[in-house]
Specification:
- The chain has a single domain, classed as Neuraminidase (6 Propeller), CATH 2.120.10.30.
- By secondary structure, the chain is mainly beta.
- The longest helix has 16 residues.
- The strands form 6 sheets. Strands 3, 4, 24, 25, 26, 27, 28, 29 and 30 form a 9-stranded mixed β-sheet that branches.
């Protein structure tokens, strides 16, 4: 992606702002759609769009036990995907293997093992289903991929070059086997924003190009007489990113806007989505609540590093962001839906709240999920993720949800404005 692509995104933002009234909202419409240079721009007024999707009280599938047969006991799960025939592949870093389960949760075999040779893992991270019947599993160090077919047969190892000695800050594999890796540029000091460079590699791992370079988070050091630790500001925001099939979704967490880019169109933006947010100003009470949460999180941690981290995270020299984040994660669904996790300050809700947008960028529904659910995959009517209970038992679960239609019937006919 070139500078031209970034400038296009900036220009699109200006077009959309021109469609908004002084209060920042489109005058009366729930959805305002426009088109510029072949890019669809959608503004969703979620004050009016309040439809909710609903999950069941219990998962429809749960894989994992505290005590039992070895294949059903997990430690450090780092990813899970559904396969075309309904099976589920789970990356279990504790045993350095990918385990396969039928759609009813029955164990069917494993692939990989601990080691440093082909088909072996030193420290596995995440996995992707590529070309329909390949599983690409990340490993470090250096960063590489062990590639298997969905029957568990090892195919090859792909090591991106130049090599990444550390795990990239963001990464993902496209459906054709090309991979994207984002690395931080700039020094993590003085709480200035660092840059994130997104690098494209071909299916054999060779570097193709730098797609784009965009601002990421702010980092700096807080110092005492005993230590110096690098931290980010309270309510700090970062670039959020996801890959699925031939698309990527990306956005800066401090702004309620994401763009969807198409790998088949030179990674140019094909869709820009914006939405309304609640008041994101920060009060002293908000800061105190965040500090209280950190103290609770590390209350039972007695080792020196955790004590230092606690002191750094609550240090008076740690700066505070100008506003709360707009969102904290993005996901591309199996069905081409687009999901955004809204920022929730400590104590605001008991769960994590996601917004679902259709492939056209129009809001579909809100979905509230258990706060401790790590989401790996959204389908058309399910969410797949990891739960860890109070005893530390890890489980892969599937929750079914019902997709609601957009309410606000008087605004169902969204205004289309051509620019």
């Amino acid at each position: 992606m070139t500078t031209q692509g970034i400038l296009l995104s900036v220009a699109l933002s200006g077009v959309l702002l021109a469609a908004c009234a002084e209060n920042g909202l489109p005058t009366t419409d729930a959805v305002v759609r426009s088109d510029s240079a072949g890019v669809s721009i959608v503004f969703n007024n979620t004050v009016q769009l309040t439809s909710a999707c609903q999950i069941g009280d219990e998962p429809t599938l749960s894989i994992g036990v505290a005590d039992g047969e070895e294949p059903y006991m997990f430690y450090r799960i780092f990813g899970a995907v559904t396969l075309g025939d309904g099976r589920i592949a789970i990356a279990n870093q504790g045993s350095q293997e990918v385990r396969l389960f039928d759609s009813d949760g029955t164990y069917r075999g494993s692939m990989g093992r601990k080691g440093e040779g082909p088909g072996e893992f030193n420290r596995m991270f995440h996995l992707w289903r590529v070309r329909g019947n390949e599983l690409w599993v990340g490993d470090t160090m250096p960063w590489s991929y062990e590639v298997f077919d969905t029957d568990g047969n090892f195919l090859r190892q792909v090591t991106p070059t130049p090599r990444y000695d550390l795990t990239p800050q963001r990464f993902g594999v496209l459906t054709d086997g090309r991979s994207i890796h984002a690395v931080t540029q700039g020094e993590l000091r003085d709480f200035n924003r660092v840059m994130l460079a997104f690098m494209l590699h071909d299916s054999d791992g060779a570097l193709v190009d730098t797609l784009f370079t965009i601002p990421d988070g702010r980092w700096g050091s807080v110092d005492t007489d005993d230590f110096s630790i690098t931290v980010y500001p309270v309510f700090g925001t970062f670039t959020e990113f996801d890959v699925r099939k031939n698309r990527i979704v990306i956005g800066a967490g401090g702004k309620p806007e994401i763009s969807v880019r198409n790998a088949d169109r030179d990674f140019d933006a094909e869709l820009v989505i914006r939405w309304t947010t609640p008041d994101r100003s920060i009060s002293q009470a908000d800061i105190d609540e965040q500090y209280a949460e950190v103290r609770t999180r590390y209350a039972d941690q007695s080792d020196g590093m955790n004590r230092q981290l606690l002191a750094a995270m609550t240090h008076p020299g740690r700066p505070v962001a100008d506003r709360k984040p707009a969102f904290t994660a993005v996901k591309l669904g199996v069905d081409e839906s687009i999901w955004v996790e809204q920022f929730e300050a400590e104590g605001e809700t008991d769960g994590s709240n996601w917004m679902r947008f259709g492939p056209d960028g129009v809001f579909t529904c809100h979905l509230s999920l258990p706060r401790d659910l790590t989401v790996y995959e959204f389908g058309s009517d399910y969410v797949l993720g990891k739960l860890v209970d109070e005893s530390g038992t890890e489980r892969i679960v599937v929750y079914a949800f019902q997709t609601a239609s957009v309410v606000s019937a008087n605004n169902s006919g969204a205004e289309l404005r051509r620019k």
